[in-house]
Amino acid sequence: MPEKPPHVRADLREAFAALDVMPGFDDYTHSASVSLGEDLHVPAPLEGVLPTGEF
Description:
By secondary structure, the chain is mostly beta strands.
């Protein structure tokens, strides 16, 4: 089974962004979300910050 890549979701109606990482068997084992305008922290191995203010 191929590995799932990190996945970014932005919901403009609900005003949030989410990052799903660390794929598990059926779903992602780690997810983080923030309100739009806040920084979304990306864990290793990519490591970084995704600013959501421009979404």
